[in-house]
Amino acid sequence: MPRRPPRRRLFAAFALLLVAGGAAGAACWWPSRTPQLHRPAGWPAPVYDIQRNPPTAAGFALGRKLFYDPRLSQDGSIACASCHQQFAAFAHFDHRVSHGLHGANGTRNAPGLFNLAWQPDFMWDGAVAHLELQPLAPLTNPVEMGETLPAVLARLRADPDYPRLFARAFGPGGDEGPIDSQRFLRALTQFLVTMISDDSRYDRYRAGRATFSDAETRGLAAFRTHCSACHVEPLFTDYRYRRNGLRGDDAGRAAISGNAADRGRFRVPSLRNVALTAPYMHDGRFDTLEQVLAHYRSGVPDALRDEPLLREATSVGAAEAEDIIAFLQTLTDERFVHDRRFSEAASR
Fold it and tell me: What CATH number should be reported for the domain holding residue 186?
């Protein structure tokens, strides 16, 4: 048999390294290419128009650097990543509500960040209608990052590195130079829009590349009976605003719509990576999935149990609840939470 040319031998060795890395664990997974927005098989079309802002290597790297930079906040202490940690699927692990300047607490739980290109609007109440505008909400919130957009742009323009990075990503710019508000927001979006979580064991099961235990199989069936009207596969949300059976003073969607009927309604969160994103609900009041299922089984007020979707959720049996939790564990995407392209280390 003829010897392989050196290039082919090198490629074969590289392939073996990839296989070995995969066997050693998802933490070793670090492809070299810049992530791109792609549409997984069986998913609906994304809402975000990627043609207006296609991710480039320079733009993605710039957005990642901005995401991890605490200098975007008023006192240089809070970055986007402070409340969105990769190991928690970019949620805020073990914090019921977001924490901001000087230890101040927000009023709502920081959700995980993934599959944002499919999300039509943002925040628990839908206060932001476009992905490119979403970073302005925490940036200007007085108890989160507490800054103004002009002040942030001035700080970036005075930095020794950022003008060069913006020019590399977007060109030299106009009268304001390479850094302006649109480029700032589009750079962050190039990072955010490529955060796609589509490689959980559930996804591999659907594709015929993984199996479920008996409990997980029963859990999927129970989930589809009791939960899927709101948490619609494959994104595990319908992105609508619904009541979750919790008592509280938060007006929810009504604060944005002005419609009293929307009081107490919140955006249905995706359940992908839900095992990693505790605590749960818009105010983070539940620490475990067991507590969430117990709430639906026995904690919903009688006055709300007549709502058709809540009535279905409250009919979960004890054994079904255990099986549903077993199924929810299959929604964890280890490759996504260990993808070093999204990590703080890669931003340096």
Answer: 1.10.760.10
- Closest of 333, 331, 325, 317 to residue 215, by C-alpha: 325
pLDDT in tens, 226-270: 999 999 999 999 999 999 999 899 999 999 999 999 999 999 999
Residue 346: the pLDDT is 87
Residue pair 342/68 in contact (Cβ under 8 Å)? The answer is: no
Quick: pLDDT tens for 71-113: 999 999 999 999 999 999 999 999 999 888 988 999 999 999 9
Q: How far is CA 341 from CA 29, 112, 179, 198, 309, in A?
A: 9, 17, 24, 16, 39
Q: Which two tokens stand for residue 31?
A: 């492809």
- 5 domain-assigned: yes
Same domain? For 242 and 296 the reply is: yes
Please check whether residue 45 lies inside any domain of the structure: no
Residue 35 is classified by DSSP as: P
**Residue 148 sits in the same domain as residue 187:** yes
pTM of the full structure: 0.89
Residue 168 shares a structural domain with residue 60 = yes
Domain with 167 in it: 50-196+337-347
From residue 309, alpha-carbon distances to 48, 50, 259, 321 in Å are 29, 34, 20, 17
